[in-house]
Design a protein that fits this description.
Elements (H helix, E strand, L loop, with lengths): L4 E7 L2 E9 L1 H12 L3 H4 L2 E2 L12 E4 L4 E4 L13 H21 L11
Antiparallel strand pairs: 1-2, 3-4, 4-5
Helix pairs in contact: 1-3
Length: 115
């Protein structure tokens, strides 16, 4: 699944990390599967992509303060903590935008599991 686009992880107006030509369809698929897990089984998210030598190009980590989004490529700059109620809708929106983009390219959107 090699559908790429520019990706930016933002925290309000601050860019936490960005990458040109990021495998967004692969990320959307992985996030969709992660979001479908029951709350008690979800745990942290670490994106393990065939495009990178190390896992964690994008990671979402639960902390005592809330969920933080970051990257192994920008370890000094994770996002501010967010509640699950504020983070989850943003992840769903990202997945839906990527699914729409995949569909517009004429590719079966089942490539990215529905929520």
């Amino acid at each position: 699944m090699d559908i790429e686009a520019d990706l930016a992880i933002s925290d309000n107006s601050r860019t936490v990390w960005s990458e040109d030509q990021f495998p967004v369809a692969e990320l959307a698929s992985a996030l969709s599967l992660w979001l479908r897990l029951p709350d008690g089984e979800r745990g942290n998210f670490t994106f393990d992509s065939m495009s990178y030598d190390v896992p964690g190009a994008v990671h979402i980590t639960a902390t005592d303060e809330g969920w933080r989004v970051g990257s192994v490529f920008a370890t000094d700059a994770p996002s501010s903590p967010a509640t699950w109620e504020s983070l989850a809708p943003n992840l769903v929106e990202f997945i839906e935008v990527v699914r729409d983009g995949v569909t517009a390219l004429g590719i079966n959107p089942a490539l990215i599991p529905g929520l």
